[in-house]
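Troubleshooting: if your tokenizer reports a length mismatch, compare your output against this known-good record of 257 residues.
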Amino acid sequence: MATKAEMYREMADHATGNLTAQVTDWVKFLLMAGRFYKYQFLDIVMIYTQRSDAKACAGYDLWKQRMNRQVRYGSKGIALLRYRDGRVFLRYVFDVADTERRENSRDPVLWQYRDEYEGTVTSHLEECFKVPGGDGLAKQLITLAVRFAEDHWHDFKDSLMLAVHDSALDGLDEDNVALRFRSAVTVSLSFLLLARCGFDLDSYFTPEDFECIADFDTRDTVLALGNAVSESANVILRQVERAVKACMFGRAITPPA
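Known-good structure output:
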């Protein structure tokens, strides 16, 4: 009989392989991934599959000790997969909705971009990534998405070429796989970044922009795409967060960790 951890792993494999079956499903997932950009791709998949309405998740000890909040009795944790010595086990996190305030408790600070922050944010991103922000934050983020998609392909093309086995990409030469991979990462990452910063997505995207997602139709190809998008979003949005919080709290931008 499969263990509980193995059952969750099977659930994760199934959910991952089906994320791109419909463009609407992939878009919904990207919206959540924008909220959980500090998590790894498979963790986001697990949160999305179990609690698609989650807003801010953390472990029991973090809520209790750092945030001074109490996880409600009977709350069902969100299982995340962890591996050690070739074995799979589970770690649980809880959404903020599963917690209660106590005396001197803290609330999660969920930053929100505003138009008046644009100069500070674009300048900081330009300093970090050498991508000009003179045409506005949206254009700068899209340009960053193009660059990160290109960089990820060059860094991982050998493993990415192995991942296409039995997928719609199987049988294509390296140049064509690269073209489709970069297109899928660019549109997905651009969407995630602009969504997290509150831009009007209808002004930048159409359903046709996501047609390239259909080529990623197996667990391994979705995993390759998802890792590229989530890892890139993590790097970029951490810098956006620093700049936005500097504006929110009237302080200097903290240097990268």
